Amino acid sequence: MISNLFIRRLLNSNRFIIHHLSKHKYIQATSLAISHTIPYAEAEQTMSDIEVLAKKVYKSSHVAPSDKLLRWYRRNPSLWWLAKDKTCLIGYLCAIPLSHEAFLKTKQSEFNDLTDIADNAIRPWNDGLGSKYCMHIFSFVVDPIYQRRSGSPVHRLILKHFLESLLLYGKSGCIVTEWSALAVSEIGCHVSRSDFDLTLLTHNSNNNNHIFYGKTSSEHQEQLLQRVIQKLQS
């Protein structure tokens, strides 16, 4: 089994500067860095930045406070895929590998991912408890300013990096075999279906929560990756 240190080196080496090329021209050249590594010394500030960015998109009642995120980081520092324009956080994806028992709760209509994920339910990668992982897609955010910019496909670039990371984890013996998501908006429902091939399990009309679920595999993740690459090139 490949060590956590080896995986982190692989993922950290995948930090890059993007020059997005369309079929006919450069749509935009920008110092947009995508990273899956958060240095310990930067963790507290990064979690604060994530909370601030999330509040630009979600209602405050749907935003995890930075102290909770920091506890999650200490349990598994590799839960986030961050997009930065120079030093400014402009988007992120947070996906959490969970114990099987905790994951089953994410499929229930009354599930609340702000209150129902215990810190000790989060699995570190390569924890020695088995090669199959269940993952809850907790949050996928892009700064509204960048959402409105044509030729700036930040969410697809984050998704591409996320899927590449999952394939690396799979090669190391940590295979994500099922995943879930809780969507609180029409856009969230669309992303769950189109980006992750998730199926709606249940809708809680009391809080408008939509619970999505799907099976996955390394082969499926490769298919999703090729799909997003095609969209980036179109």
- Give the mean pLDDT: 88
Task: Specify the overall morphology.
Answer: globular
- Class from secondary-structure proportions: alpha+beta
Q: Return the CATH architecture.
A: 3-Layer(aba) Sandwich
Percent of residues in helices comes to 25-40%
The number of domains? 1
The CATH topology is what?
Aminopeptidase
Instruction: Give helix and strand order, one letter per element, not per position.
Output: HEEHHEEHEHHEHEEH
The largest pleated sheet is described as: 8 strands, mixed
* CATH fourth-tier homologous superfamily: Gcn5-related N-acetyltransferase (GNAT)
How is this structure best described in words?
The protein has one domain: Aminopeptidase, CATH 3.40.630.30. Helix content is 37%, strand content 28%. Strand 7 (199-204) and strand 8 form a beta hairpin. Mean pLDDT is 88; it is low at 1-7 and 9-29. The chain is globular. The protein has 8 helices and 8 strands; from the N terminus they run αββααββαβααβαββα. Helix 2 packs across helix 3 and helix 6 packs antiparallel against helix 8. Strands 1-2-3-4-5-6-8-7 form an 8-stranded mixed β-sheet. The relative contact order is 0.15. The protein has helices at residues 4-12, 43-54, 66-75, 100-105, 144-147, 154-171, 186-196, 218-233, and strands at residues 16-21, 26-35, 80-85, 88-98, 132-142, 175-183, 199-204, 209-215. The protein is an alpha+beta fold. The longest helix has 18 residues, at 154-171.
